[in-house]
Amino acid sequence: MRDKKITEEFYIHLLGFRPMGSGNYPEYLMVEKDQVELHFFLFPELNPLENYGQVYIRTSDIKGLYREFLDRKVPIHPNGPLQAKPWGQMEFSVLDPDHNLLTFGQAV
């Protein structure tokens, strides 16, 4: 993450994650949602356009999560709307403010 406050705003207020005890560490952030933990470290020199960070998060309710994100006005990646993939997963993707790619999936 380049900026902890921006990352907190995105994950906590937009995606609905909750903070996890990282308040005392200004260069570290931990968030949790539905038994998924994500950890971030401060990297102010990160160029988002050159960032290739990505995470695949499995869920048991992909359609519900997608609806929740649409209701929260989460910007879905233009190439990543909810769709069935040839490899047997239903998936959608989101880019965070630092261009970390988050792909959410469920086996179909």
From TrEMBL:
Tagged with keyword Transmembrane: no
Keyword line: Antibiotic resistance
VOC domain ranges (all copies): 1-107
Gene3D superfamilies named among the record's database cross-references: 2,3-Dihydroxybiphenyl 1,2-Dioxygenase, domain 1
PROSITE patterns according to UniProt: VOC (PS51819)
InterPro entries named among the record's database cross-references: Bleomycin-R, Glyas_Bleomycin-R_OHBP_Dase, Glyas_Fos-R_dOase_dom, VOC_core
Record carries keyword Iron-sulfur: no
Record family assignment: Belongs to the bleomycin resistance protein family.
Name of the protein described by the UniProt record: Bleomycin resistance protein
